Amino acid sequence: MLYQQIARNKRKTIYVMIGFYMLVGLMGAALGYFCYGRPSVGIAIAIGIGIFYMITTLSQSTQIVMKMNNAHQVTEQQAPELYHVVEDMAMVAKVPMPEVYIIDDPSPNAFATGPDPEHAAVAATSGLLQRLNREELEGVMGHEISHIRNYDIRLQSTALALVSVISYLANFSVNSIFWGRVNRDDDENNNSAIIAMILSLLTLILGPLAASLAQMALSRNREYLADASAVELTRNPQGLINALKKISNSEPMKNANTSSASLYIADPFKKDNWAHLFDTHPPIDQRIKRLEEM
User: Fold this and answer.
1) Alpha carbon distances (Å) from 30 to 20, 75, 82
2) Three-state DSSP class for 59?
3) Over the stretch 84-100, which tens digit does the pLDDT of each residue have?
4) Does pLDDT of 188 surpass 90?
5) How far apart are CA 178 and CA 277, in angstroms?
6) Phi, psi of 105 (to 5 degrees)
């Protein structure tokens, strides 16, 4: 059951990432046609910007995310219980010991980030350390170490870079329209050219929304997989179940960063969206139900 769930979630993630890259290519083609009359030019621009954002994001992801969330690094002497739990989970998962951070916030929550297991870091709020017992803390840290072991952290950084690329392409097209840098070579009576121009414009407008929805779907799938992987590490689903119940029944975080909200083990803002398409995390009750079935 556990390995079937892991395999299912990995397949879903691959489908979402393929859609992501296709969307970047489509946005680039639309930009190229709309502004220059040549889709290949836009695709080349999209690839160039994508590589730049990817390198920048992956090389500095840990420092950027920790600074955005006001997290400070701690040593074994400063936070011995958290440090030892992270060390135990990393040892079981056979990944290098990550850097350990604490966020001064009374709401219980945690996340992992980094470009790869060799340069990863985990962060826990002060509220998490105050409210969870060791069994529950192991469940949460097992979840975060699973994100590191499964390379979710790199996947999330990649998705963040791709969303940034798509947003940049959309803004670039808007500026091009504003400054009049659009392709005017086509005959105004050419219906095919007009239809292609409209479709290109719609792609540039709707692209960022589609990218955000794909990023949220990707985040939801990875949370299910990390829950299953945490049980594989701890051999104790009840610890994570109890932790998720405590986290879901707590107040929202005060200083969480919006752009990194999808990294946390649970939505730090406790939003109640009318449409689950816009959720960054799967419902807690569904996660608990899956854990109880293991």
Assistant:
1) 15, 50, 49
2) helix
3) 999 999 999 999 999 99
4) no
5) 32
6) -150, 135
